[in-house]
Design goal:
- The chain is α+β, with helices and mostly antiparallel strands.
- It has a domain of about 110 residues: Aminopeptidase.
- Helices cover about 30% and strands about 30% of the residues.
- It contains five helices and seven strands.
- A four-stranded antiparallel β-sheet has the order 1-2-3-4, with helices on both faces. A three-stranded antiparallel β-sheet has the order 5-7-6.
- The relative contact order is 0.13.
Length: about 170
Amino acid sequence: MQISSIYDTEFKQWKSRLTELLDFLRQYGERRITLHGCRVLAELTPDQLALPGVSLLVATVRGQNGRQLAGVSFVSNFGKETCLVAVHPLYRSRHTGTALLAAHLERLGALECNVACDDIASLKMCFNAGLAAVALTGSPKPTLLLRALQSAISPTISPQEGELLCHSPF
């Protein structure tokens, strides 16, 4: 599986690619993708992909007819406005969605999303990507606000020169 960013600049090619991604989200989003999120993605322009906090990633696999979509994820305003993830059923439970979210987090440095409390698969995906629940809202249904903690953004902390690696009382 390969995670890559979408940066098509030719307008005609962009519209065709965007339509393909929106169709994928509608087909494999399990009716959990918000209409607002789809609208934000549908109105996205290639220039907006360069804005801070905006990222459009795809997961692809090699198939008989070349590369095929396994997953799509879109984030705008670091996830505060929109955070969408959809994975083809054949590639679920293989950490495809987790890999997409982790790639967003690595690219953007910060990430948050809202997930319905009854969407166990999405919650698991977010927790596996390093997000933690920070708030609970109840409109229109119970939803968790998930956010990347600072330790998830930079999990490897290297010791400074001369710093003790282990503090032993002996």
